[in-house]
Amino acid sequence: MRAFCSLMPAVFLLLASPASAEEAAGLPLHVQRLSPRIIRVWVGDHVSTTNVLAFATAKGIVVVDTTGIPPVDRELRRVIARELGRSDFTTLINTHEHSDHTGGNSVYADGTIVAHERCAAGMRRDPAQRTRILEWHATRIAELEKELAKLPAGAPEAGKKREELVLARLNREVLMADEEPSLPTKTFSDRMTLDMGDTLFELFYLGGMHSGSDIAVFVPSEGILMTGDTMADKWLNDTPGCLAAFIARENVPHDFPLLLENGKRLLARKSQIRTLVPGHWNGELSFAGFEARLKYVETLWDGIRKDAREGKGIAEVLSSYRLDKRFPELAQSPGFSPRNNAMTISEIWKLVTNQRSAAAELYALVEAGKEESAVRAVLAERDAKAPKYYFVEGEINGQGYRLMQEGKTAKAVTLFRIATELFPESWNVWDSLGEALLKSGDAAGAKRMYERSVALNPENRNGKEALERMRGEGAVK
């Protein structure tokens, strides 16, 4: 078992444990004591799993988050009771809706489950998504079994693969069971304080940059701030999981003013915060990292609103807030990438202008096989005085690849052709169309598209290599 450590008087980061001799549902178990009445538990030496914190209070044990796998959470509940020397569990707090934090709620359904008011809606499963995830797990389990069979027993990679396989099987079993989720029984919209006698838990909405229901949980008497999966500025291994993206996603509810308001409330409590705990064991967060991420959101929110009032277009805005130019200190920081930055800008643009993504609309029309007139109606908005849609090349190109990944190559070709019509001077969209045509079996058409792409960008290595391969295989002359 992990040796215990105690709280330090200044901000410090929770470090991962070495391998543990004890297991929970086939995964290494780790227990870290933060004070005589607080412990942190998690499973795995390699896989990214949820931090579960437990507080012994005058009104019972308060647990923050679950691993999302009931067999594991039942074991963790037993371990928490053993380590704290009591079993009066009364309260579970969910930092957000995702199943790797809420899927074990049933283990604590005998008490109060506290979360943001949007959490329940996010927990309800989409049957189609469940089917896709089950298929993915079946494929991944088979791959891992083959990979493990090829590795020597003592190979360094074997331990990681073995954990991935155990976790994949456990998650598949949860999905197969398809039990109704145990939803929160006590919710809030902005802020909430839970008085547990000798301990106050202050809950703050911080949603919009991971899920719509993200909250931070602050325990002033212990100086502990739990930030869920919203952010981390250091990864402890090469599988960051949920902490890999600081991003505003499409179809996720956003309230940036409230996020910033509550974030600033927490910044003002800096002197009280000694420990920051991200939602997964393999991430760390510094106070400076927390502050920098809030400043990033504030810069985008204030700046894009101003740009829109001044009549700037989305292309100009995306150029103005390039990650490497405008936020160089964050460009290489965990959770940030040019793609994530562009998506966040687009989501803020939607809120500020009430415009919708042309890429999303075109994908929906092409995927549904709608008539060309419907597509033309969207394209006509590009030159409208007050357009309903905004047009971003990267988003439209990305939706084409989404169709490719879904095995809908002919529809991907259609969407890439639309992209070349919208952005005829972009070498990248011609390259993408060439790739889709080649995959569909139209080598001659692919050759023409790749040639157009290389003409526009002689440095297009992908296009040149594709043409060379096609000539070498005799597909084209």
Can you offer a commentary on this structure?
By secondary structure, the chain is an alpha/beta fold. It has three domains: 12-124 and 181-284, Ribonuclease Z/Hydroxyacylglutathione hydrolase-like (Metallo-beta-lactamase, Chain A); 128-171; 355-477, Serine Threonine Protein Phosphatase 5, Tetratricopeptide repeat, CATH 1.25.40. The protein is built from 17 helices and 18 strands. The strands form four sheets. It has an eight-stranded mixed β-sheet. A six-stranded mixed β-sheet has the order 1-15-13-12-11-10, with helices on one face. Helix 13 (393-405) packs antiparallel against helix 14 (409-422). The longest helix has 24 residues, at 127-150. It is globular. The termini are far apart.
Summarize the structure.
This protein has helices spanning about 70-85, 100, 120-125, 125-150, 155-175, 255-265, 285-310, 315-320, 325, 340-355, 360-365, 370-380, 395-405, 410-420, 425-440, 445-455, 460-470, and strands at about 10-15, 25, 25-35, 40-45, 50-55, 60-65, 90-95, 110-115, 185-190, 190-195, 200-205, 215-220, 225-230, 235, 275-280, 285, 355, 390.
The whole-number mean of residue pLDDT values reads 92
Radius of gyration: 25 Å
What top-tier CATH class of the largest domain fits best?
Alpha Beta
Q: Biggest sheet, open or closed, and with what strands and sense?
A: 8 strands, mixed
Q: Could you list the spans in which at least 5 consecutive residues all have pLDDT below 50?
A: 1-19
Strand pairing plus helix content: what structural class?
alpha/beta
Q: Give the CA-based shape.
A: globular
- Count of folded domains: 3
Number of helices: 17
CATH homologous group name of the largest domain: Ribonuclease Z/Hydroxyacylglutathione hydrolase-like
In helices, the fraction of residues equals 40-55%
Strand residue percentage: 15-25%
Spatial gap, N to C terminus: 66 Å
- State the strand order across the main sheet: 2-3-4-5-6-7-8-9
CATH topology of the largest domain: Metallo-beta-lactamase, Chain A
Give the name of the CATH architecture of the largest domain: 4-Layer Sandwich
User: How many strand segments?
Assistant: 18
